[in-house]
Amino acid sequence: MSACVSVQLPSIAHVHVGHAVTAWPETPGQRGLLEVARSEAATIVEHAGYAVAGARDMREVKLHLGHVLHALDPALEREGPGLGYGLAPALAGAADHLGFAAEANDASANFRSGLPAVVERLRPLQRQAQVLVALSRDARGSGDLAQVVTYSEEVRQRSEALRQELDAASRQLDTLLAAESPAYRPIAQRYLFGLIRLPSGGWTYAPGVQGSGYGSYR
Fold it and tell me: 90, 93, 122, 187 - which has most CB atoms within 10 Å?
């Protein structure tokens, strides 16, 4: 006679946080969305600095502003030294999934009270990313070296401020995860990549995910 073993699934809230901090199927290397955002932000700061440093050569300045655009959103500039995903979509995805975690029916009081503040910190960064896009594109389209250099310096300053705020949001999230009970632990990819959204807007595990017959959550 065989025994029936019940598998304890990770909470839906924890899975959505895992999309931000551990893995997401669409990112390069299937890295977490927040990790990707931080990496792309670092590339933007680096190449904005190179653009300012090359102020005597307009072609060099515009080359590095193109690299900034690539790291912001590769749909705007296909070639560059970024990961190929883009800060803008990574920020949007991280904020969305942390918001889904906060709204899940199985979210802890810690997540319900703390995650919205992290999301509120990330949303303005999405707008700042769009400002960086506009400044970089305008600078690359200008024939006035003084204007190109001025815009490049603005990109450098704004990108550094964005990176600092993104790092602060990440530390805030780390503090929430450390306080989570039951404890938050890294989640296996079969669960991270095994959620589907229901027509109601809720979430459940896809058929075939181990233990997915035990119920769905929102």
Answer: 90
User: Tokens representing 36?
Assistant: 């990707």
Q: How many CA atoms lie within 13 A of 32 on its CB side?
A: 19
Q: What does the pLDDT look like over 60-90, one tens digit per residue?
A: 999 999 999 999 999 999 999 999 999 999 9
User: Strands 195-197 and 203-205, how do they pair?
Assistant: antiparallel
Q: Is 153 helix (H, G, I), strand (E, B) or coil?
A: helix
Domain of 23, in residue numbers: 12-206
User: What pTM did the predictor assign?
Assistant: 0.91
Q: Tokens for 200?
A: 């109601």
Name 36's Cβ contacts closer than 8 Å, sequence gap at least 6. Answer: 24, 27, 28, 83, 85, 90
Model confidence at 1: pLDDT above 70: no
Query: CA 85 → CA 18, 25, 68, 92, 190, distances in Å?
Result: 18, 12, 13, 12, 22
In total, how many domains does the chain have?
Answer: 1
d(Cα 206, Cα 213) in Å, to the nearest integer?
Answer: 9
> Residue 205 forms beta bridges with which residues?
195
Q: List the beta bridge partners of residue 197.
A: 203
Q: Is residue 1 part of a domain?
A: no
Phi, psi of 205 (to 5 degrees): -80, 140
- Interatomic CA distance for residues 68 and 156, integer angstroms: 10
